[in-house]
Amino acid sequence: MEVVIEQGALKGLQKKTLLSNKPYVSFLGIPYAQPPVNDLRFKAPVKHPGWSGVLNAVSERDKCTQYVFMTNHIVGSEDCLYLNISVPQQNELNGKLAVMIFIHGGAFNYGSGSMNEYSPDYFIDENVIVVTINYRLNALGFLNLDIDECPGNVGLKDQLFAIKWVKANIAAFGGDVNNITIFGESAGSASVHYHTISPQSRGLFQKAIMQSGSAFNPWAFTENHKASAYKLAKNLGCLSNDPKEILKYLKNVSAIDLVKETEFKDETDFMDYKFVPSIESDVISNPFLPAHPKTLATSTFPVPVIIGVNNMEGIVALTEDRISLFSDDHHITDEISKLFRNRYSTETISKIKDFYFNKSNISSETMKLENICNLHSDVFFFNGVYETFDCFLKQNGSPVYEYEFKFDGELNGAKNMIFATRPILRHAIKGACHADDVNYFFRDLSGVDPKPNSPELEMCKMMCKMWTNFAKTSNPNSPDLSFKWINATACDLKYLSIDGDRTCMIQGMMNNKRFRFWKELSESIV
């Protein structure tokens, strides 16, 4: 299959889906912007000039430069602004197809849109076009010196550039330019939230899906961007306090050294990333984030939204080292204080400790671990997502569907990895960890495929059916689902509890007791 766009002609790779053998074509490694190298480092993306002849788009390009903590290596390249497009070869509708652009997670520091991790087989079976993208990460994507030459948020601007590229070109691939859904998980979900509140993204997509992340989560936004930038420069040998001198110096540091030094966070600072989205200075031209996310969120432009969390996101905190930090009363107090970067008073920390770790509420070691999990779930995921959900409801313009993913199966990859050497805990703590939903949407080519006739396979089909129904029609329901997902309103809170054949609607606010605790606590602090 050959496609011609403004940049030139492309030839893709023929594939077939895992479940139904449906033929599709993947166009891999399409450049959507110029390589952000040399003088373009730290700058907003620039249009790619195109190519002559036919681009053989049959292999992926490098992921963006990043640290891999499992192997302690730096991988990737600065030349990384590429996207992948997968198109059903037999369009059963013989019309324009709905387009779904996926933004990967990884705390704005890790990850890529690689088809090895995000193979779109299950989506293609539902007859949609899927796009995955790379965007700059860590300091290369989020260094902010408050000057036009280094404005900050260029990783988000890469995403914006990619979305604009898709809108301009997807018709040539059979896509509907007026039916684009952006969706993401974790930092990808927070990115989706940013696009719903940034004036720069308005009108570029019609629907949004947010899985386990919000711009309001503490790891997704920083107000200390300048201090982090100056510390990075100093650690790399630049002693100047002039932002233009710092920029000149950092442009001559190798990408490997730059990213290696980005990892200067304290090992005990859980999810404390230094280079993430930040407010852009008044002097910046066309800022993506001209004000605090909570200010921008008061004028979110209305699009239909799916938003939700996994019920045990905080399992990511249950590493053996981290559990040991919660071993006694004194350590618990210290660790809770660190979660809030020591900003809360002793009295407030004491209230939090009593709510989660009051001995009368803990009757077993498993329950204590669940409470460690719940604390981290609430602080790093739930509170921000709930606040975002509330903001969307107040816009009143479009339907908002809320969910909680609880399914605990063999494809729960993050949970399986965290408890790989502790199988007893794996089965004792029920539910879905942060990122456990991903393998039910995308096939991980280096992982395990769902077994025939298994609950995991049914979950893959169900999740992709709902997500693609929503992408096509703004409504996740269809006659072949055994339940009806009803959207929430400000006067009628409800959510879908997703748990295999136990999937059902639940009235009220998710985790209501914990939600009320944090609401009352935040009001008392204010």
TrEMBL record:
<dbReference type="Pfam" id="PF00135">
    <property type="entry name" value="COesterase"/>
</dbReference>
<keyword id="KW-0325">Glycoprotein</keyword>
<dbReference type="InterPro" id="IPR002018">
    <property type="entry name" value="CarbesteraseB"/>
</dbReference>
<protein>
    <recommendedName>
        <fullName>Carboxylic ester hydrolase</fullName>
        <ecNumber>3.1.1.-</ecNumber>
    </recommendedName>
</protein>
<dbReference type="InterPro" id="IPR029058">
    <property type="entry name" value="AB_hydrolase_fold"/>
</dbReference>
<keyword id="KW-0378">Hydrolase</keyword>
<feature type="domain" description="Carboxylesterase type B">
    <location>
        <begin position="3"/>
        <end position="518"/>
    </location>
</feature>
<keyword id="KW-0719">Serine esterase</keyword>
<dbReference type="InterPro" id="IPR019826">
    <property type="entry name" value="Carboxylesterase_B_AS"/>
</dbReference>
<comment type="similarity">
    <text>Belongs to the type-B carboxylesterase/lipase family.</text>
</comment>
<dbReference type="GO" id="GO:0052689">
    <property type="term" value="F:carboxylic ester hydrolase activity"/>
</dbReference>
